[in-house]
Design a protein that fits this description.
Blueprint: E1 12-15, H1 20-32, E2 36-40, H2 54-66, E3 68-69, E4 75-78, E5 86-90, E6 98-99, E7 104-108, E8 111-115, H3 117-128, H4 147-161, H5 176-181, H6 193-199, H7 203-206, E9 212-216, E10 233-237, H8 241-255, E11 258-263, E12 266-271, H9 275-288, E13 298-302, E14 306-312, H10 333-342, H11 351-361, E15 368-371, E16 375-381, H12 413-425, H13 430-436, H14 442-454, E17 458-461, E18 468-471
Parallel strand pairs: 1-2, 9-13
Antiparallel strand pairs: 2-5, 3-6, 4-5, 7-8, 9-10, 11-12, 13-14, 14-16, 15-16, 17-18
Helix pairs in contact: 1-2, 4-10, 6-10, 8-9, 9-11
Length: 472
């Protein structure tokens, strides 16, 4: 049974009717993304809209599949006891799918996003790499799974979903059906890459690249004391992924300096970096790295002025540095889902923007992201500052710090005022903007900020009343 309340998401599409073209578009978008479910007979608020017979929907699904290239595999299943709607299950596909007219969609947030040009080429290249986490690990058997880790996962999953997990026992042998369902075992009961990484006693025996290396350097360069070659501390962290995340976090926590601020009459200890931001960067590296690359493990490099978390493998799918905040694509959806049920991922697809939010709220610059074909790096500075660094020029007559407006971008005087405010405060909300421009309607100001986002000057963080903007 699917939990209430039902709302569209990056794995759930709601359709009020069995519109064949709408079903085909949703099938393509989900298959190109992380897979998911199409519920037919519900409006966008999750309310019953139309009652359909399974026969009607089956015919519509067959027609829809005929509009997709290559045809998307989908199954029709009951949505749950007493439900008036029907469910179409669409698995994540190793192929890139399009509609017959050539349009390519991806599921992004709660909508089907049309891809163009480079984004299509990136997605095709990612799909061509195959579904590595679903591959069988040669020589591995169910006996290599750790019963204690399997039992912990079952408990955490039940807590996360608030739904009982039905297994004969909380052991690998007793949970075979569950392990098959989540992709830890294939149909014949052989451990997959995802299964070994999540549940094996010693995953590094099979996948030596799957651990983490923590290195602490005393200065701002990768050198030891007095400029000599070396480092202050080096830790190799191994085990199943849940253990790797926790042990790596403990090592980082031990090495993070603790400062203090005074709030009112009380002294409050403050970590060198915001806890959520570091954990999110760490979990993202573990969840999204390319495990096919055998020559390198995840590296956490701590310098005197910054921390770098380096994950092997470039950005997945159609993700780029320009859309990384707004978009979501999982290279390893089974691993991501497993870590989500474990509680290491707070909300699927919502981590990067909150990481930025936490850094800015703590007075740090926003984290920087660096991507190459084979690595993705998150760089967090431990400097606390409130002013944004820029290096572009102001219009004639301005004497404050330069405002980051490229010469080919036109902004109005209100928007320039908003950019100056951002330099002073690091962030701006709709309410802040209204206070700056009290004689202008809220809708005009909202459109001003949206225009700055479209022009690539600002990033929009958060949703609804929690929305604010930062310099990109």
């Amino acid at each position: 049974m699917i939990e209430q309340p039902l709302r569209p998401s990056h794995t759930l599409t709601l359709l009020p009717t069995a519109d064949v073209e709408a079903i085909a578009e949703a099938m393509v978008a989900l298959a190109n993304g992380d897979g998911g479910t199409i519920l037919v007979g519900l409006d966008l608020e999750g309310r019953p809209a139309n009652r359909l017979s399974p026969e009607e929907l089956e015919a519509a699904v067959r027609q829809a599949a005929g509009l997709t290239v290559p045809p998307v595999r989908a199954t029709l299943e009951p949505a749950g006891e007493g439900a008036t709607w029907l469910a179409i299950r669409v698995p994540r596909s190793v192929d890139m799918h399009s509609l017959q007219d050539g349009r390519v969609f991806i599921r992004a947030g709660d909508e089907n996003r049309l891809l163009r040009g480079d984004a299509i080429r990136q997605l095709a290249a990612s799909k061509a790499a195959g579904d590595y986490e679903a591959e069988v690990v040669p020589g591995a058997t169910l006996d290599d799974f750790d019963d204690e880790v399997v039992a912990e996962y079952i408990v955490k999953r039940q807590q996360r979903t608030r739904r009982e997990v039905k297994v004969s026992s909380r052991t690998a042998q007793g949970a075979v059906s569950l392990l098959r369902e989540i992709g830890a075992l294939d149909a014949q009961g052989n451990p997959t890459v995802a299964g070994i990484l999540l549940f094996a006693k010693h995953p590094q025996v099979f996948l030596p690249q799957s651990g983490i290396v923590f290195i602490k350097f005393p200065g701002v360069e990768p050198r030891g004391e007095a400029g000599r070659i070396g480092y202050g501390r080096r830790e190799e962290i191994n085990g199943p992924l849940a253990r790797v995340v926790e042990r790596a976090w403990q090592v980082i926590l031990e090495e993070m300096r603790v400062g203090a601020v005074v709030r009112g009459l009380e002294r409050e200890e403050v970590l060198e970096y915001p806890e959520f931001a570091v954990r999110e960067a760490l979990v993202n590296a573990v969840a999204h790295r390319d495990y096919r690359l055998r020559g390198r493990r995840i590296e956490v490099r701590k310098y005197a002025d910054r921390m770098e978390i380096i994950s092997p493998g470039g950005l997945a799918g159609y993700i780029t540095l320009d859309n990384i905040v707004e978009e979501h694509f999982s290279r390893n959806p089974r691993i991501v889902q497993g870590l989500y049920h474990w509680g290491y991922i707070e909300e699927l697809g919502m981590g990067i923007d909150r990481m930025i939010e936490e850094m800015i709220a703590a007075g740090h610059p926003a984290p920087r992201f660096h991507a190459t074909a084979y690595t993705f790096t998150v760089i967090m500075s431990n400097v606390r500052e409130r002013r944004a660094a820029t290096n572009l020029t102001l219009p004639i007559g301005q004497t404050s710090e330069p405002i980051p407006v490229p010469s080919n971008v036109i902004v109005n005087e209100r928007q320039m005022r908003a950019l100056r405010y951002l330099q002073e405060h690091g962030r701006i909300t709709n309410r802040d903007y209204q206070n700056l421009c009290p004689d202008v309607t809220p809708e005009t100001l909202r459109l001003d900020l949206a225009d700055l986002v479209d022009k690539g000057l600002l990033l929009r963080i958060g949703e609804k009343r929690g929305t604010y903007y930062i310099l990109k």
